[in-house]
Amino acid sequence: MTDSNSHIGRRSYLKLAGGAAASAALAGCAGGGDEETTTESGGETTTETGGEETTTSTPDESSEPFDVTITQGQMPSGLDPQDHRETPTDIVVLHAYEGVLTRDATGAMTEALATDYSRIEGENAVRFEIREGVTFHNGEELTAEDVAFSINRVVDPEVSFASPQSDQLAGVAGAEVIEGENAVKVNNSSLNPIVFSEFATYLDVMQRSWVEGNSKAFISQNMNGTGPFELDSYTEDEEVVLTRYEDYWQETAAVNTLTFRAASEASTRVNQLLQGETDVIVNVPPQEVQRVNNAENTRVAAAPSTRIIYNAMRYDVEPFDSVKFRQAMNYAIDLESIVQNVLGGFGAQTSQPTLPEFVGHNADLDPYPYDPDMAEQLVEESGYAGAEIELNTPVGRYLKDLEISQAVAGYIDELPNVTASVRQRDFGSLVDELLAGSIEERPHWFLIGWGEATFDGGLVMTALLSSEGLLTTWQNEEFDALLEQAGNQSGDERDATLQEANAMAHEQCPWIFLNQQFSVYGVNDAIEWEARSDERIDAYDMSLK
What we know:
The chain is an alpha+beta fold and 545 residues long.
């Protein structure tokens, strides 16, 4: 239970989040996977390409160079941008690597290493025109061959390795250089209505010769991208130091040296911020918000994120092989109390795998109510009365992750016919088990979070709940058929199919549905920076006040 005087409520939070949060929500309302764009003024330039207007922002040229330290809950698992699935790693490597498209702070799609993009008429394919004059950090020029290779390295395991990011480019079959042009053709296995949205969020471009000329271990310890920062030093599990790349194809960054460190304990991160040892920290707990805001040189920056927090239950093991038992687990917890008292209002209840801002969200589904009597009855009907279950949870990766897990297990343990406990896990070892490649190697019951910056419910459900999904703990042929059907639809038709899939997931309960995470950062007040809904901490957008 948090002190009511030590945190701000959700209404105050939303005011604090400001325009960036509203813009992110609007960007997520583009129906049927249509590619959202925006046009703005005031420090941004507007270009038109592919029949759409996009925006490109640059750092404030008047800023004097300055140094920034960012402290996350976890260090990156490595530096290969295509061999991981964790946001802490993404936040680091995206400063050195770029994609053909990207998103700005509002969630709008913008050009990056591509200057033009379009569908190829009469084919399930798209075309990217590659930007001229871009160099990798080793000084060599970017080519269309590098882009095609990078795409194939993700989607084709025979090119290099089985990338854990293959589902992020769902529907992409491969890429090839268009003969005689500085352009790439991307072949899709079907219509792929969200292909540009996928490329605006995923796919980091690497240099083919550099990748093929070095070992996998070397690539994991070094970086050679086209981004605004290049690697200075990397001490595994301790520190990553980047410096601005002076030959960057846009304006050079205002930040001169960018250092990443980690502290799993929220209190440690807050103390480091207040003592001036770091400039940006993640996951400020609700009870520390007032202390950060009241300090002389720090403030809180926040935004509703695209991340859902949930408890996965493996459908193939007792007692979770019973739908009634899984439903009982949802009725057993007081989710409203968890959001208000554990998260201090910095979250929202969920009822399905797809968040409200996403394509495919089913507005007719309500969160499971707190009903311990119903939970007890369903446990009896499941035949698993007396079950003993253990919840695996990371510590320090997500906002109040351990406390959420303790609350969930506490509620379930209060049932007279179930015993529940919590097992604290190192995030890296837990992720290794989740990415092991088969359901049988994953824990029976665990807390995890999933962020989907494309605002597409189909990608969330494909990765987390389809039979071949990267992190699935459930298999259902009817559910798979709905996702396959949605992959060949667009607009309202696709949205309706995904809503039907969400309704099935709600009823079958492969998860205990928990909360939408709100991203809450502590920031050095001398730095101009706003929180983003996609959880990216972009130092290129930072300047001094």
